[in-house]
Amino acid sequence: MTTVKAPPAEPQRTGGVAGAIKSRLQQLLAFASLIVIYAFFSIVSPFFFSYGNFIAILFSTVVIGTLAIGTTFVIITGGIDLSIGTGMALCAVMSGVFIVNSGLPPAVGVPLAILFGGLMGLVNGINVALLKIPPFIATLAMMLVAEGLALVLSNSTPIYFSDSPGYIDISAGNLIPNVPNAVLILAAIAIIAGVLLTKTVLGRYTYSIGSNEEATALSGIDVRRWKVGIYAFAGLFTGLAGVMISARLGSAQPATGMGYELQAIAAVVIGGTSLSGGKGSIIGTLIGALIISVLNNGLQIMSIPQEWQNVILGCVILVAVYTDRIRKREA
Predict the structure, then answer these.
(1) Global confidence as pTM
(2) Each residue of 222-244: pLDDT tens digit?
(3) Which residues pair with 251 in a beta bridge?
(4) For 289-321, how does the pLDDT look when each residue is reduced to its tens digit (9 = 90+)?
(5) What are phi and psi of 160, to 5 degrees?
(6) Is Glycosyltransferase among this UniProt entry's keywords (predicted)?
(7) Rounded-to-integer distance, Cα 295 and Cα 194, Å
(8) Which residues, in sequence order, are CB contacts of 266 under 8 Å at separation 6+?
(9) With helix as H, strand as E and coil as C, how does 36-104 read?
């Protein structure tokens, strides 16, 4: 007697017309918030509303946006990844190790650095899915490991890419006049990630695991294998973020990375992805990342002290998480 696997549970985004409308309204609310914040800073500062500053905002969104896109997949499954910030710094250092210390060409060193991020994600996935370690603890441990390894492998000193101008051009070059390559890369990976999340089996299972992991497993899906794969896939974005930030700075800074994970997770939640899993979108995450970047840029232009910038960002994160809890109760 043969058994037929039931299809996985459909994600909440396809849970009916009402659910789809509600999701769109949440994205529109986030976009409206972005417009209001942008308009506010444009009014209070004469230096904010300019093409140069607009490009600067997009440029500063690249790293947070790249990290946020990867972690969107993880959070939709109901997980979390606290290691993306220090993991990004470690991948930047590995890029320096491959290209500067080992003399590999950027065409080889860059993919290796990105794959190293995937390796970290793979380890996180194994710890979470196979060893059943809570995601918070597993990725917290990886955060500390990555922070330490970045300092060890770099001898606690920056690695400069002075002799690799092609590497720096990955971020700061201009295939399109006045538009940094980093912005184009962010747009490209956002499109790719959006297609994968909405049109492929990877995205379907990502939503399904987050919506109801037990039902997904009972339908015949190997949940543990897919969770490992999702964490590994998200790790590739951590590796890419490491490449982008080191190319932008022209150096691999081993101490860079702390705090980026909070901004990336905040961007994901602000964009409408639920911390309880099963719901989220790439376009919402990009809107959230832009909100974070506009806030940072506007507060800096207004000469708000860094400590108060942190206070304001912390309040934004609290509001985003509280809003997520309200959405969960109303669901």
Answers:
(1) 0.91
(2) 999 999 999 999 999 999 999 99
(3) 160
(4) 999 999 999 999 998 888 888 898 888 878 877
(5) -95, 145
(6) no
(7) 25
(8) 288, 292, 313, 316, 317, 320
(9) HHHHHHHHHCCCCCCHHHHHHHHHHHHHHHHHHHHHHHHHHCCCCCCCHHHHHHHHHHHHHHHHHHCCC
